[in-house]
Design goal:
Rossmann fold, 6 helices, five-stranded parallel β-sheet
């Protein structure tokens, strides 16, 4: 079975490394981007199965990225999970812009993995067998 590819977009590289390690341990292929421009370019080039997107980052905010991804034929069907340190008051705006879920950092990794599994149509048991 081919690995699902996840794009992590966050300007905190330590966070990207830690989350990448968790995702790789669960059988995912991971690519990263650290700003809005890189996020859009990576989504176009890599064609990930899912994107985990921060809101506050250099080069433009995550909500703008979310809208641009949704407007492109190449990226509009990729599920995007917003994961941010900003206030939960942004949740409605993120969901309206196209996010499938919104979490505040720090997020419990098991909750995030369950959301990823759900979005990718997997069961938790299947991912643990990898």
């Amino acid at each position: 079975m081919a690995e699902n590819k996840i794009l992590i977009v966050d300007d905190e590289m330590d966070f990207v490394r830690i989350l990448s390690a968790h995702l790789k341990a669960h059988g995912y292929s991971v690519v990263g981007a650290s700003d809005a421009v890189g996020a859009i370019a990576a989504a176009q080039k890599e064609r990930p199965d899912l994107i985990i997107l921060d809101v506050a980052m250099p080069g433009g905010d995550g909500l703008t990225v979310l809208k641009r991804l949704g407007a492109s034929d190449h990226t509009s069907l990729i599920p995007v999970i917003v994961l941010t340190g900003l206030a939960s008051t942004m949740r409605a705006e993120a969901i309206a812009a196209g996010a499938v879920e919104f979490y505040i950092k720090p997020v419990d990794i098991d909750i995030l993995l369950a959301c990823i599994h759900k979005q990718l149509g997997q069961t938790v048991e299947a991912s643990q067998r990898r």
